[in-house]
Amino acid sequence: VLQINKDDVTALQCKVVCLIQNGNFKEALGIINTHTKVLTSDNIAFEKAYCEYRLNRIESALKTIQSASQQTDKLKELYGQVLYRLERYDDCLAAYRDLIRNSQDEYEEERKTNLSAVVAAQSTWEKVVPEDLGLREATYELCYNSACALIGQGKLNEAMKKLQKAEELCRQSLSEDSDVTEEDIEAELAIIHGQMAYIMQLQGRTEDALQLYNQIIKLKPTDVGLLAVIANNIITINKDQNVFDSKKKVKLTNAEGVEHKLSKKQLQAIEFNKALLAMYTNQADQCRKLSASLQSQSPEHLLPVLIQAAQLCREKQHAKAVGLLQDFADQHPANAAEIKLTMAQLKIAQGSVTKACMILRSIEELQHKPGMVSALVTMYSHEEDIDSAIEVFTQAIQWYQQNQASQTRGANPKSPVHLSLIREAANFKLKHGRKKEAISDLEELWKQNPKDVHTLAQLISAYSLVDPEKAKVLSKHLPSSDTMSLKVDVDALENSHGATYVRKKAGKLTGDNQQKEQGQGEVKKKKKKKKGKLPKNYDPKVTPDPERWLPMRERSYYRGRKKGKKKDQVGKGTQGSATTGSSELDASRTASSPPTSPRPGSGAAVSATSNVIPPRHQKPAGAPATKKKQQQKKKKGAKGGW
């Protein structure tokens, strides 16, 4: 037909539709653009906008739709999709509501699914509390979108239940089709399992999340957006550990077409993690390049500057890092508080605590916060700068006084935070010897609550060190001992579960013993003595030595160690000399003594009553009289023997 008439409108329209059905969007758009005189926006606007949408020319598609003279239902459907891709969620929500309200056909379920997807995106990316649309969650797509909205609100347990319901519905709907295999079902469930793993990661169950993420990657899903998100989440779990695995996963985030599948915030998060991974792998130039690119795209964003500062700190350039943060704080005052907190942390890491305090005190919106006051007082105390610490307390107390006066016109009492600061200031001053200053704070507290006995006691204690007379006067305001006495059941208290001492009840006594024990205290139970262990060689017939408990030296029969006595005298003396004394070998000297041993065959023995000294107990005739002389001879070098 077109060979006969190349400008036939119906033939051109049919050819464009056929090309779109075959996925040849570029060729179809080329035909539309070359026949603009014949194919006007009135009769081909939808086809042109759809080709531009599928070619990811979203802005052009929006212009084409808006320029159409007549807004048909199919153009409105496409308009909603375009607005969703442009992340104009409020306009998109209005468009789908209008479609659902003014159309009745078989595509109503799909429109409700798209509407729930818009609500989920608002909850996730814009932190908008979603309104209840009253949609019946009859399909797994609706359950999945509802779970995403709950994740955006932080309701993780409820979201997990919705995802489990979505998984069940998905299996049921797909299993009804006989042509669908188990692999097809698992591929369809991959996105649901991915959200389940994300919830586990948010709940701190990183091992379970990592295992589920890896299972999804093994399935090799065709959705490059899903793979990119899962790979990014695995990188965040790895952090500075297992960097080689993270470098492999980064390749999945660089797949073709990822930028058209994810939102701007998702893509930005992936780029941030790439920069951090480059820092962890010591790729300093790559880290600086990525962070600088991110900063140029989002000049007001904190993370690119913090990544650059962290990289400089890894290179030991702390001063340069602080300067970079200071420049950013000057250019973006709205984010100055977070930047200055980071600067203070760097100064503390360098050991410059005083400079860190100066930076913290420059954050005006945080000066009065109890956490900031506590941190500054602690740091100043560490530096032994008590005056500056007291000044921090004073400024915070004054801020609360002025703020409260402007809000309540001085009519209402002080806030609990204000009173708490005054009390902490008084305790700090007392601790560091500033008694007079502490007294003024305590008096202020007592005026606010005259019934506060604790404050009054502190005040009296402080005055007792400065003005005892004043302390006596104030002590009259203390309640009497009668009013302070507590009605306590002592027995119940002693027998309570938490008592450290429990008084045991005495057993029942009978007869005379009962009369004797009346009026007396508790009977102490006698401890049985354990029988001592006796030595193995103990003989009950032999009387033990009464002095056995005394050291040997202190016993009456101790004679000291015998020095110089030769044992057996075998092998002693010079080589070749006899060991026996000369007097023992002289027979004339021992003529009157009996033989040292009985003669063989005689059977005679030495009498036990004989007064003759046996040869072994005899002293040699030539032996020295005293030991001292023998020791003197040895000192002179005398040798034994003949």
UniProtKB/TrEMBL annotation:
InterPro entries: Signal_recog_part_SRP72_RNA-bd, SRP72, SRP72_TPR-like, TPR-like_helical_dom_sf, TPR_rpt. The keyword Repeat applies. Component of the signal recognition particle (SRP) complex, a ribonucleoprotein complex that mediates the cotranslational targeting of secretory and membrane proteins to the endoplasmic reticulum (ER). The SRP complex interacts with the signal sequence in nascent secretory and membrane proteins and directs them to the membrane of the ER. The SRP complex targets the ribosome-nascent chain complex to the SRP receptor (SR), which is anchored in the ER, where SR compaction and GTPase rearrangement drive cotranslational protein translocation into the ER. Belongs to the SRP72 family. TPR repeats lie at residues 190-223. Gene3D superfamilies: Tetratricopeptide repeat domain. This is Signal recognition particle subunit SRP72. SUPFAM superfamilies: TPR-like. Its main location: cytoplasm. Residues 536-557 have a biased composition (Basic and acidic residues). The gene is Srp72.
